[in-house]
Amino acid sequence: MARLAAGGMAVVAAFGLTACGVIGRPGSDETASAPGRAVAEGFKIGLLLPGTEATRYEKFDRPYITESVAELCPRCQVVYGSAGRDHDRQRRQFDSMLGDGVKVIILDAVDAKAIAPSVSRAVEQGVKVIAYDRLAGGPIDAYTSFDNVQIGKMQGQALLDALKAEGDPRRGPIVMINGSPADPNAGDFKKGVHSVLDGNVVIGGEYDIPGWSSDLAASDAAGAFATLGPERVIGVYAANDGMAGGAARAMRITGIAKGTPLTGQDAELAAIQRVLLGTQTMTIYKPIRPEARNAAQMAVDLGSGRTVTGGADGEGTVANGTSSSIPAQIIQPIVVTKDNIEDTVVKDGLWKVEEICTADLRAACKSAGLT
Predict the structure, then answer these.
(1) Ordered structural domains, the chain, with CATH
(2) Helix 62-72 vs helix 288-303: angle between axes, to the nearest 10 degrees?
(3) Where are the beta strands (DSSP E) in 209-251?
(4) How many Cβ atoms from other residues are within 10 Å of residue 15's Cβ?
(5) Ramachandran sector of residue 51 (left: φ over 0; alpha: ψ -120 to 50; beta: rest)
(6) CB-hemisphere CA count at 13 Å for 238?
(7) 254-298 tens-digit pLDDT
(8) How far is CA 331 from the centre of its chain?
(9) Backbone φ and ψ of 185, nearest 5°
């Protein structure tokens, strides 16, 4: 599958999908309508991000969303809260925003199920809620994220291909390090990866890691390696790059053979560097800017009274157990290996060559064509 080409098309499509309505500007006919007046006057939009070991939220998501809102609604105010991976803290932030008069909340939930009562209170008060990056519980109004089952399939296929390149993929056990059980995305990743790996590999140990903790991932991986025998382990599935970092430490300490396949996700800087050094096989690049743009457009549309639709044809929906037809804008992810770093994360400006190619990576960068 030509993933890079498909991913590029998905990014273009995602930008196209964001045009849910035409934003009125002062002096235009649109400002005479209620939505146009709302945009011209501005309103408050809440932004609740989970806070995590991943660097993406402060470096990319928050500024991209804030910039997009400013372009679409110059007088709108973004009220921000980061939960530090603490559900109770996020719940308090959510309630505070309701008291602060926000019209819309963009929510990336720490605990998707536990936040549902807060979402219900918001709806009772007439506040719209957009689930961002992971599907939250409760009567949310819209959702934008990536094709998470497909991410799992991509990770599983990359791991399976790497195992086959060295021989029989069932010649030894693999270890699986899954994401947080409180995160519905983790369940989707797991579903996707199992659809590829089941029956094709021997799963020697599988762990769900609360909070996506890198330290817990390292501890569980090290325990699995010791039990199975480091000389027997032929591959490691890690659901994201933070946990891949923990797994990589455990692999090094316990004596797993260098070059043993290891997956990841999020295209974090450290993961890109591990891919170049050969200590991580791949990562998944999820273009954040179109996702952020989707969320901003949805927020401005919902806050001004416009209708939000999902998918390229306006018919894309998801269900979360409370609502069965939530408008959804879904973006396709991209597999990143040593061979396409320049054409993906560097080309899109996620990371600069000088950020990636530190002194100890110069030879690896030169070998990969990064100059």
Answers:
(1) 3-146+288-331 (3.40.50.2300), 148-285+335-367 (3.40.50.2300)
(2) 40
(3) 235-238
(4) 16
(5) left
(6) 36
(7) 999 999 999 999 999 999 999 999 999 999 999 999 999 999 999
(8) 10
(9) -60, -40
Task: Name the one residue in this structure whose structure tokens are 């200590």.
Answer: 279
| pLDDT tens, position by position, 21-52 | 434 444 445 555 888 899 999 999 999 999 86
Name the residue type at position 248.
Answer: A
pTM: predicted TM-score of the whole model, two decimal places = 0.82
Strand partners, 262: 236
E-strand ranges in the chain read: 44-49, 77-82, 104-107, 128-132, 142-146, 173-178, 202-208, 235-238, 283-285, 317-318, 326-331, 334-336
| Between 17 and 193, the higher pLDDT residue | 193
The answer to whether 283 and 267 have CB atoms below 8 angstroms apart is yes
Burial of 89 (0-12, 13-18, 19+ CB in 10 A): middle
- Residue 250 makes CB contacts below 8 A (sequence gap 6+) with 217, 218, 219, 221, 222, 225, 256
The tokens for 264 are 């990841």
Arithmetic mean of pLDDT, 153-161: 98
CB 68 within 8 A of CB 293: yes
What is the CA angle 198-199-205, rounded to 5? Answer: 55
The pLDDT tens digits for 65-87 are 999 999 999 999 999 999 998 99
CB of 217 closer than 8 Å to CB of 246: yes
Q: Which residues, 6 or more positions from 135, have their beta carbon under 8 angstroms from its beta carbon?
A: 112, 143, 145, 184, 185, 318, 320, 326
Q: Could you tell me the pLDDT band of residue 303, with boundaries at 50, 70 and 90? A: very high
**Length of the chain as a residue count:** 371
Least confident segment among 188-197, 224-233, 311-320: 311-320
Q: Cα separation of 364 and 323, whole Å?
A: 49
